Amino acid sequence: MEDGAGGARLHVVMLPWLALGHIIPFFELSKRIACKGHHVSFVSTPRNLLRLPRMPPRLAPLINLVDLLLPQVDELPRDAEATIDLTSQELRPYLRKAYDELEGQLCRFLEEARSPPVDWIVFDYAPYWVPESPQGSGPRLLRAAVGVDGGRRRSDDAGAPDGSPEWISFPSTIAFRGFEARELFRSGAERDISGVSEAIRFGVAISDCQVVAVRSCPELEPNWLNLLTEIYRKTVVPVGLLPPVAEEGPTRTAASGGGSSTPFLWAFRRPSRDDGEELEKLPFPEGFEERLDGRGLVCEGWLPQVRILAHRAVAGFLTHGGWNSVVEGLSLGRAIILLPLMFDQGLNARDLVERGIGVEVPRDEVDGSFTADGISQALRLVMASPEGGPIRSIARESKATFGDEELHDEHLTRFIEYLVEHRRAPP
């Protein structure tokens, strides 16, 4: 562990949104900041703090876990403190409403955090109110992005349907499908029960912070990082990809789907009924469980994804394309099969396909529907067919960028040096 950049120790407050795909990357960044000798206060709710990966004992003196009690909102399931606890996507606005009510508790914590005083608040898109709180004029504000942020606000510069928008100065095929864009902007642009839209949260969080940090690196996407700087008109600092460090997991078969004749492990989340209660009987096709015998494993609940992906038996990774999962898979050189479901996942999928790293499951362009045959074909293409050889090869080569711990530690060091150099002078 290093000594805080020559003794100039920082105190950084981390404030992620209540989703494990945000909480875990924020915690990983927290650990790496602490490894450099700086203090971190990691703020979340009690149940989410219990979900965090084990903290190395040597970092415990530098990472303070701050639990804020999530106010009860009648529409939320009891003890729901993260998106994984929700029985329906329609409940997300109520979780955001409860989250917004944490502002008072956060302000009290910041008032009391005097030893050492807070230098930076690293916050997610959802707590757009952080810049407006009374303490917003104290610590400097850093917006951290774990995935792809919304970019332009104008709708009249979208460019031709078959080409890049005018404001993208380099060739790219990355774009939302029609069904993705409709769902994203329908839910994102409308004011919800929390009183604001998702678009407002993104926009205010970006416009009112001093600097934007992204989980990326110039070696991977220099053009996009430069474009973000132009769009946001403020400093954009890559923190590196934060590749996971994993020991090889237990001996298990892994990786594919029931109709592909390939051994697989499926991380399954039990769906809910209309009344919010979990289904007692799993909604699998008749005979599915018998066909699993000896070649497939279905596991409910949270799984140690990195440990599983690190196992030498794993050849491919079928994922929704969330950035956290993409980094974990490619840092281990696994070929990627993509089935994006929401938010930035569609853009991530197009990006990987454009790079020749992965294959996307075919979807109906109008309604987004897909078939079991489509999944099976994508799995066989990537994992078994001669035509998938280049994809497997490029995925293995991608490990040199995604999994280069020394490279990404250099980016993290430069990020921390920026925080030290630009922190607000004490009163």
From TrEMBL:
Transmembrane regions: none
Keywords tagged on the record: Signal, Transferase
Gene Ontology MF terms in the entry: UDP-glucosyltransferase activity
InterPro entries per the UniProt record, alphabetical: UDP-glycosyltransf_plant (IPR050481), UDP_glucos_trans (IPR002213)
Keyword Repeat: no
CDD domains: GT1_Gtf-like
Keyword Signal listed: yes
Annotated signal peptide: 1-21
Family under the similarity heading: Belongs to the UDP-glycosyltransferase family.
Annotated protein name in UniProt: Uncharacterized protein
